[in-house]
Amino acid sequence: QDQELVEPKVLRSPVTLPLQAVKLPVPWIGGHFWTRGYGSVPGPTIRVKPGETLRIRLENRLGPGPGYDGCDIRNSNLGFFLNPDTICALNHSNLHVHGLH
C-alpha cells in the first residue's frame, strides 16, 4: 500500500515540543504500536539561521508510566516495541534529533 510523503511542520525558535504518546501504524504486519513523539510522525523540522540562538522547551506529557517495577521482560515474545509489558519507565525523556546540520 503506497503512502504519500508527509512533509513535517516547520518551526522557528523559540520552540515548545510536547513529548507525548504517539500511536503509529504498522501496515506490513497490521495493527499499531505506541511510542514517544513530538505530536506528529515525522516530528517537526526546526530551522535556524547562522548565529541565531535556538531555544527549545521540552514538555514531558508522558504521565507517570509503569516504572521499572511494572516491567515484565518475560512477556517480550511480541518484541520490545509491540508489547507494552516490556517497555519500562515510559515517562523518561530526552530531546531526540536527526540531522543536525
Description of the structure:
- This protein is mainly β and 101 residues long.
- 0% of the residues lie in helices and 28% in strands.
- The chain has no helices and five strands.
- It has strands at residues 10-12, 15-25, 32-37, 45-47, 56-60.
- It has a three-stranded mixed sheet, with no helix packed on it.
- The chain is flat and about 50 Å long.
- The two termini are 33 Å apart.
- 3% of the residues are buried.
- The model has no long low-confidence stretch (mean pLDDT 75).
Report the helical percentage.
under 10%
Strand content: 25-35%
Kindly report the spatial arrangement of strands forming the biggest sheet: 3-2-5
Largest sheet, described in full? 3 strands, mixed
Give the number of DSSP strands.
5
- The low-confidence parts are none
Structural class: mainly beta
Distance N to C terminus? 33 Å
| Count of helix runs | 0
